[in-house]
Amino acid sequence: LLEVKNCEGFSTKLPLKWKRNSIFPEETVDCIIKSADPKKLMIGLASFLQAQFAQKASEKNIETIGFYDAFHNPSDLTNDFDITVREVVKSVNNIIVPYQALRESFQNLNSHAAIHVLGQPTYETWMQDVEKYSPENTLKKLGYTQQRPSQVIVFSGGYDDVYKKSFENILVKKSLNEFL
């Protein structure tokens, strides 16, 4: 943890309802960067506050690294998260992405940044689990010991618009709309 002293307007307690477009006063960001005196700054890409710190660090010739760990391409969607990512990514000079297919998309979002593909531990764990997957064991856990269902869909994800769109794509591709 970083102790920041004498930075007017800065509090270590952020409100629970912190919004993606919230920012600090410019003097506060400047004071925090000066106090920390980092050689490199690694940020997430989901809030304008992160972009604010990256921009201030860049002004002081501090290397900036943006880390993106979602599975989807942020260029494809128009939800609050993706719009924010597309803006924040312009503030960094290095971008870490989870897999190769995202490299081109992020290069298009920030042509001056170096893009690094480092993997996604959660995704890699899921893939290992898939390799060990046993349909019989899963059906047994679900209570299908006698009669096997004709179709089973497994969908992992959250509940925001990104996953809703992904789930809808599955339904359209598999012609399963009648189940909704």
- Write down the overall mean pLDDT: 77
Our measurement of the CA-to-CA distance between the termini, rounded to an integer number of angstroms, reads 48 Å
Question: Runs with pLDDT <50, length 5+?
Answer: 174-180
Shape: elongated
Number of helices: 7
Largest sheet: 4 strands, parallel
| Structural class category | alpha/beta
- C-alpha Rg (nearest Å): 21 Å
Along the chain, the helix and strand elements come as HEHEHEHEHHH
| Strands ordered across the widest β-sheet | 1-2-3-4
Strand percentage? 5-15%
The helix fraction, in percent, is: 25-40%
The beta-strand count equals 4
Walkthrough of the structure:
This protein has 180 residues and is of the alpha/beta class. The chain has 7 helices and 4 strands. It has a 4-stranded parallel sheet, covered by helices on one side. α3 links the parallel β2 and β3.
Topology diagram in text:
Elements: H1 26-36, E1 40-44, H2 48-59, E2 63-67, H3 80-88, E3 94-97, H4 103-109, E4 114-117, H5 121-131, H6 135-141, H7 161-173
Parallel strand pairs: 1-2, 2-3, 3-4
Helix pairs in contact: 1-2
Features:
single chain, 180 residues, alpha/beta, 4-stranded parallel β-sheet, 7 helices, disordered C terminus
Task: Describe the structure concisely.
This protein has helices at residues 26-36, 48-59, 80-88, 103-109, 121-131, 135-141, 161-173, and strands spanning 40-44, 63-67, 94-97, 114-117. With 180 residues, it is of the alpha/beta class. The protein has a 4-stranded parallel sheet with strand order 1-2-3-4, with helices on one face.
